[in-house]
Amino acid sequence: MNHVHEALGVDLGGTKIRVARVTREGVILEKRVERVPKGRDAQLEVIFQNIQKLYSDRTIGVGLGFPGRVKVPEGIALTAGYLELKDLPLADLIRQHFSVPAFVDTDADMALLAETKMGAARGFKDVAMMTIGTGIGGAILFDGKMFYGNGSAAQLGHLTVDPRGPVCNCGRRGCIETLSSGSALGRLLAQTDLDRNIPATELIELAQKGHPVARQVLTEWITPLKMAIDSLYAVISPEIVLLGGGLGSAAFETLQLIQPAGSPWFHSRVAAGTLGDDAGVIGSGLCAWEKFGDQE
Ligand SMILES: [Zn+2]
């Protein structure tokens, strides 16, 4: 195949950064994955270094998915609970540094874009997605278009389900990010005799075999998520709710296993994303193609 041009997709997570060269069809040609260090300067450096390593004269533009609130379309990172990159004109910085166009959106919007084009959301026009990793991101496709509201809509990790719950990065209590994220699962495990770092798949297997503690942990982890999905359905009734991010499949399997009670009024179709951890970089690359592909 002759790939004359390519986009760079960047998926910035709370713990890892992924950068990939992506074709117009969403095929990854080359990918880098690196841990995200602590500190604002080090975090900026790791972003620019990794873009630099895959950047070439074939690059038509950069799409970057950011794990926090983003002002779209300006591409300004407003806040990021797990990173120290608050109030940063990220799209402008990339444009100036590499002299290519850049578009910055949330990591969840990028993942949903990829799932819409080539994954589990193909063919749907009204979709909600929750990306479950270190925190919980959210994205809404409304009538076939990404929904931004006043600039940073769909922060689904901040759906509140327990006013007396743990304090969230947003300043409130009991957001599902504090109860059903990867960090929350780690905290739940730390209160038991189970290994805090047990892979979610093994934890689910234990629960399937009837291990009472594993089942209890998973019940506490997934019930708030189920409540949030039901509330989301009550508000926007999407055709499908996708669970993505590193723990998307685990959350979906856990929902099937535990089946927390809900209301028949709010019965949502739920599925796991099919692109896994690559959804973010693919979506970021596709986003760059969508915005800048005609300028090549
Ligand atoms: Zn919150």
Fraction of residues in H or I helices: 25-40%
Alpha-beta classification: alpha/beta
Main beta-sheet annotation: 5 strands, mixed
> What would you call the quaternary organization?
single chain
CATH classification class of the largest domain: Alpha Beta
Quick overview:
With about 300 residues, this protein is an alpha/beta fold.
Task: Walk me through what this model shows.
The chain has 296 residues and is α/β, with parallel strands linked by helices. The protein has 2 domains: 123 residues, Nucleotidyltransferase, domain 5 (2-Layer Sandwich); 155 residues, 2-Layer Sandwich (Nucleotidyltransferase, domain 5), CATH 3.30.420. Helix content is 35%, strand content 22%. It contains 8 helices and 12 strands. A 5-stranded mixed β-sheet has the order 3-2-1-4-7. Strands 10-9-8-11-12 form a 5-stranded mixed β-sheet. Helix 7 links the parallel strand 11 and strand 12. The relative contact order is 0.18. The site of zinc ion has 6 residues, from loops.
